[in-house]
User: Fold Dihydrolipoamide acetyltransferase component of pyruvate dehydrogenase complex from Bradyrhizobium forestalis.
Amino acid sequence: MSGLIDIKVPDIGDFKDVPVIEVFVKPGDRVKAEDPLVALESDKATMEVPSPREGVVKSVVVKIGDKVSEGTVIVQFEGAGAEQAEARPVVSAPPSPVSAPAGVAEVRVPDIGDFKDVPVIEIFVKPGDSVKAEDPLIALESDKATMEVPAPLSGTVREIKLKIGDKVSEGAVILVLATGEGAAAASAAATPTPASTAPAASPVAQAGAVDEKAFALAYAGPAVRKLARELGVDLGKVTGSGNHGRIQREDVEAFAKGGAAPSKPQAASAGGGGVGGIDLLPWPKIDFAKFGPVDRKELGRIKKISAANLHRNWVVIPHVTTHDEADITELEQFRVKMNKELEKSGVKLSLLPFMVKAAVAALKKFPEFNASLDGDTLVYKNYWHIGFAADTPNGLMVPVIRDADKKSIPDIANEMNALAKLAREGKIKPDQMQGGTFSISSLGGIGGIYFTPIINAPEVAIMGVCKGYWKQHSADGKTWTSRLTLPLSLSWDHRVIDGAAAARFNVHFANVLADLRRVLF
Ligand code: CAO
Assistant:
């Protein structure tokens, strides 16, 4: 293509159809060689694709969510003639596992995807060196990519366990680091080494020493980590606005300016920080083993992602939960009857598909529940994709039934079973969990009466359902009958919905369940 230079995804090993999770450039940007263009994330690693050359971006060909493989054009640079250039990926492996008694840590090669027996081509440190978290320790080079393995913690290098030319895979010990609370804190508080060109720390950074562990665990790519170091920002306290809570360049810049970024939701081990300008107490650091035997198990990847999302949603959305109940006596009889009729077809109906239909009916009547906030604008969606919370061995997932308004109850039941199975087997694809307009979280098969479900942003409401139970009802206080009663807990975003609308939504939802003929109205 004359006048444009295609910049393509380079050889990224066995990775294929990898989603773009961040785009760092826009048309008109002047980029230098090695400036990151996009970030890709497979289930194994995050890769930033740096620019192979200097240039001015004419157009950005990919967008967040696109799946790319080797050879996909990412951006086009302005140029004199038809040229092509391939970037070289910088793979940001997750922080290396460390195993250690207090004060000494063995740093190992982290999960580096499908790469195995990769030669060490460079060792950046020697015994006696002080390293900070994220400082590169070694470089590995396969025939596909060059990878730098960063230090997961601050400390002093005690012993190097490998040499240039050694072939390593995940788990190989790289070096032994003298570390521990004292070392980490001292190192974090230390001024940057003379080689560093870091500008003076921002006021935010001066307010406290960087929590190196939280920094190492923060969900961000190498370029963002580098920027955070340069600006003196404690990544552990930054809220990520990217996919799955990934921290972006703007989040770090906003935080450095003392901006609106609320505290980074942390998955269990760390927390605290400021929320909306209010400083919270630091998360207590307790040596639990002092009080009795303990086992430690790092949260799995899905749990970490959902923890970050749940925390953000809980902190950012002003939740209110309205409780109500539905009389499902007749519905239950109908369900049992239909299950008998459908027995031969292999379809089994639980209450949930009926609730999906009731949700669609209520969403059609109250469209602001099927909307999302885009700044100060409310986006009403003319499609009804209903998510349902599924409990899986890896944690909570929310598969989505698309166009639930157009599907029959048996079709919804079949699709739900298939999606729940995929989720439990860890085979569900990201696009099967995207695009939801409203969610249902059912604990009905387990128990409980009421709870507060957390809204699945950018949705504005979620219906929580517990186990149906027999309850005495009376219309006049004189005659009493037993009715099968379903407890409902609707959480709603008070920025969009008010209490009266929520109460009406619940009443309509319950009325539809009590008499499904109302779906027709
Ligand atoms: N009241 C009474 N019984 C109920 C019920 C309710 N509200 N909801 C389900 N049941 C019954 C079902 O009818 C079924 O009974 P039978 O086997 O006799 O027919 C039994 O409980 C088990 O149902 P199920 O859980 O297998 O099926 P489901 O369609 O109700 O739910 C799924 C499917 C995937 C949503 C569910 O298995 C699940 O994962 N639930 C957990 C969701 C969750 O974790 N929510 C919390 C999120 S917040 O952390």
About this structure: The chain has ten helices and 32 strands. The pocket of oxidized coenzyme A is lined by residues 350-352, 388-391, 396, 420, 441-445, 453, 465, 467-468, 486 (CB under 6 Å).
